[in-house]
Each structure stands twice: as structure tokens, then as C-alpha cells.
Amino acid sequence: xxLNKQDIYKALEKISVSGEGQNMVESGAVKNIVTFGDExxxxxxxxxxxxxxKKRAEVDVMKAxxxxxxxxxxxxxxxxxxxxxxxxxxxxxxxxxxIKNIVAVASGKGGVGKxxxxxxxxxxxxxxxxxxxxxxxxxxxxxxxIMFDVERERPLSVQVNGKSKMKPVENHGVKILSIxxxxxxxxxxxxxxxxxxxxxxxxxxxxxxxxxxxxxIDLPPGTGDIHLSIMQSLPITxxxxxxxxxxxxxxDAKKGVAMFRQESINxxxxxxxxxxxxxxxEELPDNKYYIFGKHGAKNLAEDLEIPFLGELPLVQSxxxxxxxxxxxxxxxxxxxxxxxxxxxxxxxxETVARNQGLPPTExxxxxxxxxxxxxxx
Length: 377
Ligand SMILES: Nc1ncnc2c1ncn2[C@@H]1O[C@H](COP(=O)(O)OP(=O)(O)OP(=O)(O)O)[C@@H](O)[C@H]1O
Known about the structure:
This protein is α/β, with parallel strands linked by helices. It has ten helices and 13 strands. Binds and transfers iron-sulfur (Fe-S) clusters to target apoproteins. Can hydrolyze ATP.
């Protein structure tokens, strides 16, 4: 069987690269096609480094050729990424010296396990040898001090180049600053927006973080003032969304993603983590009960074309580990620790892909409250 190049072009005119309106040939993604007998090599050039879009394009090309040209064709797809050097609406900003990646962890709805995921991600990254900081910016319910068992500690003041700086408290290999260090445990946190923003700015810029590979920021739930103020002050590398598979949580996660994707904000979403994906009793790890629904966050990731970073089950010991200040990521080879490790690998992989494909994110310059319209989306 000798394959005809024109037939291949026609088949590829029926499909498009995920997220693009035009078909692959029209959009210029198909760079070259070579055929030898029943073999065909397709060269694709994509403008996004996202792994899931790359994989989907490969599979779609194979399917289109097998369906419309020859079912037994031997297809090879070469994918090259040529991301635009500067996407529109992104303004160049100054990175914070010494901090390589700033990852914001967000959730639409409260109580879905954002702080638990952030704490475990931080410990797991530190276990892998990365230098990690955690900024707990959840002004309504700071919990990093409990999750890292540093409730009684306070950041010390140190001199750096003649300036007084706050030294983050360290435990489990993670440098921590939390709004919780500056409030009494039994005190309700009533911050006015500008006060909270000022306190957070001090924890970011007047702190001696040193060299960090990752600074994770545990954001408050929702899409409010604190998010805007953090994104204004800091060049966020990307955002990780945490959601349970439940519809009410997914609806809010969607709003959160819409906020990051808003033109004036434009923070890349690294992916979605599904927390409390299913309940599993410790003694019966093979029994899975989908009490909040099945694969909700995974499906949302697919719909929004955002990488799915993995799932964390609802396990009593994850809650207990958080409460005693020893995140489950510190456990050796338990199913929970393995699930966290798998999520961590995905976060690292997607962060690397993001950094290869896009220029550094800038601190966003929001000059009007137009950014707030994201909450209406
Ligand atoms: N996978 C899990 N298994 C068991 N318990 C969990 C899991 N994830 C979170 N929890 C528990 O659920 C509760 C809420 O979690 P967490 O505080 O991390 O949520 P959050 O989204 O950060 O909440 P907030 O809205 O206060 O910021 C905590 O008691 C925590 O220990």
C-alpha cells in the first residue's frame, strides 16, 4: 500500500490542535508530511508546551490517518514546540532574587483541602531535595503553623545587608511564614484588605527567604482582594487549583481558573489536584467509596484543557497527620505518601514545561477593579 500525501493532508484538515479554532493544516501546525509505502511521518509545530495538548495532538493525528486514509498505516508524529516569546497581555516583571518558582495554591471553595495539599506538596518537594518555602496567606484561616507543628514559634529578626529581615521558621525542611505567627491562636482574624496586603507584602519582601526553588503560597479560598494583591506584588510562576470532585466545589474551582486566566491577570494554571477523590479505610485500601462523586476534578481539567495533577484520597491519617504537624508526605511508602509523591512529580513536570514555553510571569499591574469581574464568570 502506497500512501498519498494529499490524502493525509485531507485527513488532518478534519482535526485541530486542542484549543485552536482552525484545523491543523490551516493553522500551520502541520509543517511537513513524508510518506514511504505504508509509513507516514508528520511534523507538527505547536505553540503551547502543555504536555496534554501535545499528547492529544499525537493521538488525534494517528486516529485521523487510521480512520480516513489507511487503518494499518504506520504513523510517526514529531512534535516541536515553538511558543511565542511573549504572549500578549503579559508585561515583563522583575523576579525576586533567589526565588526560582512561585506557585500559588488556590481553591474556589473553602475546606476542600488546599492547605493540606500545600503542606504535603511542600514537604514532598523538600524530600526530593528542592529548597522550599511556604507562605501561608490564608488570612481567614491560617493553618500552616499547626500543620508544621510550629504554633509556638515566632520568626526571628536577622540583619541582611544592614537591613532587618524576618527569618522564616523552619520544619520538615520547609521555610514557613504564616499570618498565623502574628495572631493569637484564639483571636479571630479581622483584617481590613490593605492591612492584610501590607502584612503579606512584609512576609514576602522583608523576609530572609534565601535561595528557593519553590515558594508555595497558600491562598485564601475564593477569588478576592488578597489574590489580586498577591498577584500585583509577585510574579507568580503558576497556580495549582485544588478541588474535591463535588459539583459545588468544581463550580467554584472553575471561577478560580477563570480569574487566573483573565486577560489582565494571565497567570498560567499549572493544573488541578483532586482532593478527597474517594474515601478509603486504612485497613481496606482497595475499597474506594466515591462519596463526593467520581473524577469530577479530572473531568473539569479535561474540559478546561488544564493538566490533571493527580488525586489524593480521603484518608483518616491524612487528617491526623495534618493535625499533629507531621504532613502525610513524611510517611514511608504509605498509599497516601505515594499519592502525594505522584502529584509532586506532576507539579514539577508541569512547572518545567511552563518555564520552557513561556517567559517569566510579571507582577500584574492592576490599575482598575476590572480584575474583579472574574468572580462573575
Ligand atoms: N485527603 C484528605 N484526607 C483526610 N482529611 C483531609 C484531606 N484533605 C483535607 N483534609 C482535612 O479536611 C479539613 C480541611 O482541610 P484544609 O484545611 O486543608 O482545607 P482548606 O481548603 O485549606 O480550608 P480553608 O478553606 O480553611 O482554607 C482539615 O481538617 C484537613 O485535615
